[in-house]
DNA sequence: CATGAATGAGTATTCATTCAT
DNA sequence: TATGAATGAATACTCATTCAT
């Protein structure tokens, strides 16, 4: 029927006692990314982690909780990355936009896998986690929007449709995990520079 | 909707795509969009179409064929839209980019639902259909890339990283279905104008 | 661990198409009686009915619904039996008590298996069905109590503690399924006569 | 509670029944009563006792042994109660029946919870314990039957169907735990008097 | 064209139990 | 004494699919 070749045997030595939790997180990340939330079976996650199904349930109370934990970790990382970047720079809108784009590119490269999962499977979060994630997403949107609006108002940016500009910039950054190959492509710093240039052009800096 | 006879190799009776067949396509589009390929059950699709499960199997030989038909219809539409737009304009890279962006925005607005499905669930196509879809996707990429490369070479565009420019433009257009609300947002023509502006800025026209 | 020898292979010929529903009710009744609600596995019920697990779910939406259906059928039967018996007799308390005891004994003998299930597993009904069953149970209690109270008031019964009398009579009748063997024991009519005598003695008729 | 060393053959360390062991017995009694043998999980029992699952296995070698211990304790109590009552009275059948009913009512009130468990879940005992329990049950039955038969023979009771009389009396007593509320209902001594009256009427004393 | 009845493989989850410390 | 980590078999239930009519 579907594509995946279903290679289920796990690599590496048997997981040493007491370290099952980490192995599970890694395996879950991989399998959710490969097959999506509904396509991923908890059996296969346990198998790839080198543990029994029951051991998975010792560490995580449900598939949903395992999934939500992954998303939460990752999005908290993004929030921290943005905050740090913006705290370390001045008031100039161009400077601030530069910092925010760099932080975003950095995050999308570092957390390629989780970013892909979030982009495709956020709707499968239970209402409580979905709410939190939506709020954090919106707060990131506001970070971008405030900077662009500010730049447009004070004349630093020549930008007639700031909402579209913001959407274009975020969309461009968010698409990076879809194609970026950490082995073959340009290094993350150079990549960030290029996306900074694109962003500044979009807002008319 | 879906009127073409659609020869997508399957056993059983030929699929005339009338009456029941249409209701099924509509229902399938909605449910695949809401829940994703694995999250959607053909029982629910049949129910929403007001038909029995067995009736669904009269019209479509499998879940996969139903899904692939949807994707195929939609991507063929895109290809035709782009071809028409580019045939109707001259050689100037800016003019051609303008036409291609307009065609893309138009398509993403017209086919919002299928676009969302394709973005999230393309990996669930069986190898044969996945191959075709990938080729068509790549041909669209080439359309963009050729125009941008051309403009950069002849000096019409000031654009040092044409690959990144192309990715940014496509990503911005592709993200439209994620937020665009045909009721409340600006009309498609105005939207296309704005994305044309953004694209021209990105390539430094 | 536990007692049951787990004889799972089903007897008789394969179930003819279209008659699975009845076979399932019979099998469910048997297995719920043998092992209790939680001890009964839906797999074993399907197996004894000569059907697949999935066929069971075609007929019944859940274990709970299958179980509740059984109980509902049976208790409705009791209500009808009592109503008929009381409508067919006059006003004399002794005559009415005689009729009600006879109806109860008759029901406990006819519905031995369901009676046992209800006595042991009523708590496993979901709240909605549990409520209905409790109400019907209480209405039966009231039938007994009204007759006894009436007889005590008008002097036909010499009975100082009518509530205890009623409980004793009901308990005696309800215990019949625990020991009665339709093959070896006295026939139901004779049995009813004996319990009528006991009931009349308890109320001091 | 449960202080006796209780030699119920199991492997592992001897079970001194102190501290943790007691908490477990209490918790087990409650949970088995609430949910039945199969509905009760030893995880929940351990949790309610405030212990880990592994601690439960220190005190009890299996779920079955924990359950059987409860039943054994309780039924031994009944046997002792009956023996004491009958040893303390003379030869008159009415006097002996009075004593036995009083002992039974007393036990059903004192051991309400275990009585309920035994009534519903005796079938879940393993064969060895089930056998012992059945024997003790039968010996109690014989105590009742001998007295009634004796009374009938010597003319003290006017009782044509002594087996039915005995069943009715036992059923009435056994049903007490189903409705008796130690807070709100009559005190046990008064209750016993009323059941003595009922029993004497049933046998025609 | 359409349905009701059935299936076998798969789903997430819970069970009683054990092991190493 | 007690625990945290793990297991294999079972649980109720859903899946895409088929078949006889």
TrEMBL record, chains A, B, C, D:
InterPro entries: Homeodomain-like_sf, HTH-type_TetR-like_transc_reg, HTH_TetR, KstR2_TetR_C, Tet_transcr_reg_TetR-rel_C_sf
SUPFAM superfamilies: Homeodomain-like, Tetracyclin repressor-like, C-terminal domain
Positions of the HTH tetR-type domain: 18-78
Bias (Polar residues) ranges: 1-11
Entry keyword Transcription regulation: yes
Organism superkingdom: Bacteria
Gene3D superfamilies listed in its UniProt record: Tetracycline Repressor, domain 2
DNA-binding region(s), residue ranges: 41-60
Disordered: annotated span: 1-21
Keyword entries, A-Z: DNA-binding, Transcription, Transcription regulation
Protein name: TetR/AcrR family transcriptional regulator
